[in-house]
Design brief:
Strand content: 15-25%
Oligomer: single chain
CATH topology of the largest domain: Rossmann fold
Largest sheet: 7 strands, parallel
Distance between the termini: 31 Å
Bound molecules: NADPH dihydro-nicotinamide-adenine-dinucleotide phosphate
Helix content: 25-40%
Structural class: alpha/beta
Strand order of the largest sheet: 8-7-6-9-10-11-12
CATH class of the largest domain: Alpha Beta
Number of helices: 9
């Protein structure tokens, strides 16, 4: 019998209990899934950082903590967490992000807001360029960035991507390093941020970075709020250098009602819904990962504590 502790906010339990039990059965695992195992009996923890579990020291036989979210910035620096930490990489998160990113890139590319918001009797005949003439740069080429980049490339957009290490991804011009960052910014008619939040990516999109983007560039941020310097972005929107920002994530969430982003005509706010962990596909991933570990293959999607993602 494998003891799995479900450690997330109470509200998540009804959502995950049955999908997890079904996924464990499908993976051939005999699991006692509970929200209340005594800590020293727990084999694995299915985890969300907003749970009551903040001290991992009592979980002495725990073989792994499986984070429900892709981002781990709220747990990775917990010094009591000595157990392996896996993050969520699954079909649902990836497909959700592909749909949000391609949907909003197409919306911005086609200038759809002018028609959706402008049903005012004015016959607007501006023709957008074809996708081949709109360059997209993706900052972060991991599970989500690479998939979004390839989806956009398949729609005809010239896609440049930037990551920490060198990459070779079909359909994407892959860059890295400081020079690569500069080239990717210069090629960003539309910039899409998909880096994790780490000390290195905090404030990555600052005044200098925004200034290197082409005049009239547009920006999508479904990564994490602090990747953008908000003051710098608001100034760049004010000057018109950046034409539009569609923001899903913020330094403070929910975004306070009096934040200037809500009222800014060139900003679209979405409430951290770019891609949500779906209980069905996430449960399958968690079950597969535990089955791997039980079969001696080890957990996958492990977080590197040094890099912080
Ligand atoms: P991954 O860890 O798979 O990919 C991260 C990418 O960012 C990698 O390509 C990595 O480079 C690159 N990167 C990290 N640090 C740097 C740096 N200092 N300089 C340059 N590149 C860097 O993450 P995912 O793709 O799964 O997710 C990305 C982020 O998306 C998550 O961390 C999360 O914050 C956010 N997210 C938001 C959601 C939403 O609903 N808004 C939903 C899900 C995720 P390398 O490949 O070389 O390691």
């Amino acid at each position: 019998m494998i003891n799995v502790l479900f450690a997330a906010r109470e509200a998540r339990w009804p959502e995950y209990q049955i999908p997890l039990q079904q996924a464990f059965a499908k993976a051939g695992l005999t699991v006692n899934l509970s929200q209340n195992h005594p800590p020293d009996t727990v084999d694995y923890i299915v985890y969300a950082p907003n749970s009551d579990v903040q001290d991992f020291a009592p979980y002495t036989k725990c073989r792994g903590v499986l984070n429900l979210w892709a981002g781990v910035e709220d747990v990775v620096h917990n010094e009591t967490l000595t157990q392996p930490l896996a993050r969520m990489v699954d079909y649902g998160l990836t497909q959700g992000m592909i749909e949000w990113v391609t949907g909003h890139v197409l919306r911005l590319h086609l200038g759809m807001d002018a028609h959706i918001l402008g049903q005012d009797g004015v016959w607007r005949t501006d023709t957008p360029p074809l996708s081949k003439d709109r360059r997209v740069s993706i900052f972060g080429l991991g599970a989500l960035g690479a998939a979004c980049g390839q989806a956009l490339a398949s729609l005809g957009f010239p896609v440049t991507g930037w990551s920490r290490s060198p990459k070779d991804i079909a359909g994407i011009t892959c860059l890295n390093g400081d020079k690569g960052f500069q080239v990717a910014l210069e090629a960003a008619d539309i910039a899409v941020l998909l880096v994790p939040l780490t000390p290195q990516t905090t404030g990555l999109i600052n005044a200098a970075a925004l200034a290197q983007m082409p005049k009239g560039a547009m920006l999508l941020n479904p990564a994490r709020g602090p990747v953008i310097d908000d003051e710098a972005l608001l100034a760049a929107l004010e000057s018109g250098h950046i034409a539009q920002a569609t923001l899903d994530v913020f330094a403070v969430e929910p975004l306070p009602a009096d934040h200037p982003y809500w009222a800014h005509p060139a900003v679209t706010v979405t409430p951290h819904i770019a891609s949500t962990t779906r209980a069905d596909t996430a449960s399958e991933m968690i079950a597969k990962n535990i089955a791997r570990d039980q079969n001696g293959q080890g957990l996958i999607h492990l977080v590197d504590r040094t890099s912080g993602y």
